Structures are given as structure tokens and as C-alpha cells.
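Lab notebook, design round three. We kept the backbone fixed and only want residue identities now. Task for the bench partner: fill in a sequence for the structure below.
Input C-alpha cells:
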């Protein structure tokens, strides 16, 4: 078994992919590794190039562009190395980087992910980490934040000589511990591209893992080359993922507020750019390109942020849209099951702990009838019932047989969930074998 599995996600970047694989082939081999290319339905001859020039590289072909997160998750499932390196096709590892990242994870078992310091092709330093997004970081000038709170908002372009703990890493060159993936879960596929590594780092840190930047490991990253073909579509995907992140971790109201403010600011920016381009007779190419990209993004906002306009297939529902209500006759207010429903991100924040009264609450959350997440009412009732020791007050009627409780033989002060017939004395997925009742507690 290899020590490191290197996953390279490709979508119509044949020439950059060739340079990336050539850089990997030139590296010394202090650690054993296997290279896997996950292709998202490329039509530029990438498959033939890899087959003819790099026979030792495994090539996994998706029928269409499934997005970065799904491609990575497939690559992780197809490999078994203890460490997984996510490497962009426009990134080139430098000598010693692979061994340095693997050594960091090996020497520090509490580190979930280690990232390399990124450099531009001309040798200038490139940001390799970031703080978690918030309304403050999105609505206030980042330079001002660095001056006011340098410890909380450090400069991302400052050269560092020692490893340091950060909020999140840039996924262009990030090595992840497989045990952390099994604990935290894979990348969230609601992020088609952009923000998937930020979301994963936040989930890992909430579970007690550390995220580390390792300046001793270096990689050259041609940032912007992948999205240079259509900057407008790339910006749409970036903002779509940004809104999905805020909807998942900050709530719908915060996401809606950010979306409204961003649209207003973007409208002013597009108008100013249009005036500038008109006054200069379109002679400044940079202004023209920025106007086209901003106008594309503005049109997406004006259309209500639909599923199109970006790189994702047009039929894919935006990640931050959890439910769409069908207005068909006879189904007014019913959930349209044709649209994918994203689970409630609040539910995974609850942890399991073995106690008698919690098994019914877990069953209620996991077995909620109908598609989608359990309603907040059910979650609140479950938490309240758990605190009162009354699991019989949980959940929809369909789960009454599992949630019904009875006092134990010791006097009735402790409530025990009554198991359905044929369950064999087991409720939930607790660590104990036959009597593994579980309870959820807030993380």
C-alpha cells in the first residue's frame, strides 16, 4: 500500500495536467505514492494524453462534469493510502514537498490537513490559507481588517518560516489524513467548485482537528489559469458556493442579507464600469474584461441566482436551495421531490453518547419520514425531551413505536425507550453491541 495517494481533478486542462504530472515524475521518491487523475468528462484529449504519456497513472473517468467535490470523493473511495494529497492540475509540486507534508501528518496525529506554501509562476508568494468567511470579511475591506486585527486577520502574503495553525487551507495543494476524512466526512458535493475545502476545514476544526500551513513544502500554482477561459462563469460558481457556505454555516437569513447587499454593491460597480468603459471608448482591455465578468455575475443575481450561468450542469439546483415548493394543482406547498434536498447542516453537529433515553431521539432524527432534513420543531422537541428524560415526546407518529418509553423497574424516575419487535435489543448505532442505545448531545 502506498503512503500517499495523489488526487488530481481534471476538466479540459490537458496541457496543464501534463505539466503537473511531469513535475510529479521528476520528484524524488522518499515516500511511496500512487497518482490518480479523476476526469470530469473532458473532451480535449486528456484521457489519451495520460494513457500514452503516463501509463502508471490511474485514470478515473466521469461521464460529465461532476464538480470538484464529487470527483475528490470518488478518488478517495478508490484509494487506500493513509494520506491523500489534493493537487490542482495547474499546480506543480516542488522538491521535498511531498515528504514534508507527509512527515507533518505523521508526526502530529491531531492534524487533519497540511497545506503547502503556494507561489505564482513568476516566483511571487501566493496566499495558501484563509480565515473563515463572515459578514465582516465580506462587507469590510480586508486591508482594513488586517490593520485593525492583525492577529485574527493576518496577511496571507507574508513569508513564513515555521509551520502555523490556520483556519482553512487553499485546496490547490492540501494533504489530508484519511482518518480525518472518515471522521469528518468527505467534501460536501453541494459546493460544485470553490469553498469546498473551506467547508471541510471548518467541519474538521469543529470536531477537534487542527489545520496547519507548512511553509517548508512548496508548490507553484497558476492561480486563475483554470478559470481564465470564462471568468464570468467562474465568478458565478464562486459566489454560488459562497452563498451555499453562508447558508450552511451562518443561516438562511444571513445568506439572504449578504446576497441582497452584494447585488446592490455589484449594481453600482457595473454601472461605474460601464461609464468608465464608455468614457475611454473601450480602449482599456482590463476594464472591458472586468465589465463583462461583472455583468455576467450581475445578470445571474438579477435572474434570482438560478442553477445555470456557471460551470455546473444547468439542471443542478444551487447548493443553498434546500427546498423548492411545488405549486402544481393538488400539491400546493408540497416538496418537489425532483429537486435534490440538502440535509440540515445543524444535525451533524450533534454527537452520539451512550445513555438509555437518547436512542429514540437519534431514531427520530435519522428516520424522519419524507425527504429532506428533520424540521427544526422536531430537533427542538428532541433536545427538550432528552433533557427532561422523556423520549416518548419525540418525533412524528410513524416513530411512536420506537420513541415510546416506559419507566424502568427501579422506580420510574429513569425512562427507557421501548424497542420495536424483532430489533434484537438494539436501538441506534451505539458502540455497544446488543444494548447500544445512544443519545445525541450538542457539540
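Proposed sequence:
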Amino acid at each position: 500500500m502506498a503512503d500517499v495517494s495523489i488526487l488530481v481533478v481534471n476538466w479540459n486542462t490537458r496541457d496543464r495536467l501534463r505539466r503537473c504530472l511531469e513535475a510529479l515524475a521528476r520528484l524524488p521518491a522518499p515516500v511511496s505514492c500512487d497518482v490518480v487523475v479523476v476526469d470530469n468528462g473532458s473532451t480535449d484529449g486528456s484521457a489519451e494524453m495520460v494513457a500514452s504519456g503516463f501509463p502508471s497513472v490511474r485514470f478515473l473517468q466521469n461521464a460529465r462534469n461532476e464538480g470538484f467535490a464529487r470527483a475528490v470523493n470518488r478518488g478517495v473511495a478508490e484509494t487506500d493510502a493513509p494520506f491523500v494529497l489534493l493537487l490542482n492540475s495547474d499546480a506543480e509540486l516542488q522538491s521535498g514537498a511531498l515528504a514534508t507534508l507527509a512527515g507533518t501528518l505523521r508526526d502530529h496525529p491531531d492534524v487533519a490537513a497540511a497545506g503547502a506554501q503556494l507561489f505564482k509562476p513568476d516566483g511571487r508568494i501566493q496566499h495558501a490559507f484563509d480565515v473563515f468567511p463572515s459578514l465582516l470579511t465580506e462587507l469590510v475591506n480586508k486591508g482594513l481588517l488586517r490593520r485593525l486585527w492583525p492577529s485574527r486577520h493576518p496577511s496571507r502574503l507574508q513569508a513564513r518560516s515555521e509551520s502555523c495553525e490556520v483556519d482553512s487551507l487553499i485546496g490547490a495543494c492540501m494533504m489530508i489524513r484519511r482518518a480525518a476524512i472518515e471522521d469528518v466526512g468527505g467534501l460536501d458535493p453541494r459546493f460544485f467548485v470553490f469553498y469546498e475545502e473551506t467547508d471541510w476545514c471548518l467541519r474538521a476544526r469543529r470536531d477537534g482537528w487542527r489545520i496547519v500551513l507548512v511553509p517548508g513544502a512548496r508548490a507553484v500554482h497558476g492561480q486563475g489559469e483554470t478559470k481564465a477561459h470564462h471568468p464570468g462563469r467562474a465568478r458565478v460558481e464562486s459566489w454560488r458556493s459562497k452563498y451555499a457556505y453562508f447558508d450552511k454555516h451562518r443561516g438562511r437569513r444571513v445568506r439572504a442579507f449578504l446576497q441582497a447587499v452584494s447585488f446592490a454593491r455589484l449594481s453600482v460597480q457595473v454601472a461605474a464600469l460601464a461609464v468608465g468603459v464608455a468614457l475611454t471608448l473601450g480602449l482599456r482591455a482590463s476594464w472591458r474584461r472586468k465589465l463583462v465578468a461583472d455583468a455576467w455575475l450581475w445578470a445571474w443575481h438579477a435572474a434570482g441566482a438560478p442553477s445555470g450561468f456557471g460551470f455546473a450542469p444547468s439542471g443542478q439546483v444551487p447548493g443553498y436551495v434546500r427546498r423548492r415548493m411545488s405549486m402544481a394543482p393538488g400539491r400546493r406547498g408540497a416538496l418537489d421531490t425532483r429537486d435534490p434536498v440538502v440535509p440540515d447542516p445543524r444535525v451533524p453537529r450533534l454527537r452520539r453518547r451512550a445513555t438509555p433515553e437518547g436512542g429514540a431521539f437519534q431514531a427520530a432524527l435519522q428516520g424522519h419520514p419524507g425527504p429532506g432534513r428533520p424540521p427544526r420543531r422536531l430537533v427542538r422537541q428532541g433536545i427538550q425531551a432528552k433533557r427532561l428524560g422523556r423520549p416518548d415526546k419525540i418525533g412524528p407518529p410513524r416513530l411512536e413505536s420506537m420513541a415510546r418509553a416506559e419507566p424502568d423497574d427501579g422506580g420510574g424516575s429513569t425512562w427507557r425507550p421501548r424497542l420495536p419487535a424483532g430489533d434484537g435489543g438494539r436501538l441506534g448505532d451505539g458502540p455497544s453491541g446488543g444494548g447500544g442505545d445512544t443519545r445525541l448531545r450538542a457539540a
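Keep this in mind before ordering anything: Residues 252-279 form the longest helix (28 residues).
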